[in-house]
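Morning. Coffee machine broken again, so started the prediction first thing and wrote up yesterday's gels while waiting. Chain of 275 residues, entered below exactly as on the submission form.
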Amino acid sequence: MLTALLTGSKHRTAGLDVALRARVDDVVVVDCRDDVVDLVARLPQRSVGTYVQLLMDAETPAGFAPPVTERIETVALVAPLLSPTASVLLVADDPADPAHDQRVADGLCLLAEAALARANHAGVTVSLLHEATPEAISRLLLPQQASPGALAPLADLGTDRDYADWRTDILNLTSSSDVTYFGWVNQAGSAKIGLLRGSVLSPLRVPLESAFTWGSTGPAAEALGGALIADALGGQPVDDGLVALFVKEVIGTLPEHGFELPAADIQRWLHDHLR
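Came back before lunch.
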C-alpha cells in the first residue's frame, strides 16, 4: 500500500489532510522541515505514491530565492521515498508565493524534475497547481475510478450517426483548447515535453522508454506526434497514417530549440484531416 505524503504549514494542510484521508488509507502530514528529515529515515524507500508540497512557513519571506530553494531541497530530500510512478504536486496558492509567477513556476518544475532525475526518479511526474482547495488537489492527484455512467470508448459513440456528424461530436467531446503543449531541451541535452492546462503545469504522460523529438520526421518525431494527438483525443488510439501526416505538416516544422503548440491548433488540424 502506497502512502500519500503532505508537507506544509499547519494552516495550509488542515483541509487537504481531511480530503486525502477520505480517499487514501495512509496519509502522512509533516509541517516542519526537521520532521521531514526524520520521516525519510523512518519510512520505507519507494513507499510514497503521492506527494503534495505546500509552503512550510506561515508567511512567505520577501524575495523568491528562499522558498524556491526550500521547495527543491525538500523534493530532493523525499526523493528516496517516492515510488517509480509517484505524482508530485507543488501547490502555489498564496499570491505572495514566487511560484505564482508562471516563469518561476516553469523553472521550479524543471528544477524539481532535475532533482528527481538525479536521484534516479526520472519516471516521477511533477505538476504545479495555483489552486489549493482540497477538491482541486485531490481531483488532480486521485482521479475517480470510471463509473457505469462514464463515457464509453469513442469508437462506440454515435454508431447510428454518419461519419461527418460523428467526427464533429468526437472533437467536441475531446476538446482541450485551453491546453498548451511545449517542448524544450534541458541542460543534459534531453528533450522534455509538458503541458499547461489552466493553472496546472504537468509533464505529458508518455511511456518511459519512448524517445521524442521535433523539427524532424523520424521515429522519435512520430512518437511525439502520436502522443500529442492521443492526448488531444482523450487517450484514444491514433491511426498511423494520421500521425505520419501530422508529423510531416506540424511536428517537422517546429523549431528544434523548443516550441509552444496550443491544443486548439491541434484540434483545428484534426478537424481538417479527419475526413
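The two ends are 47 Å apart (CA to CA). Going to sketch it on the whiteboard this afternoon.
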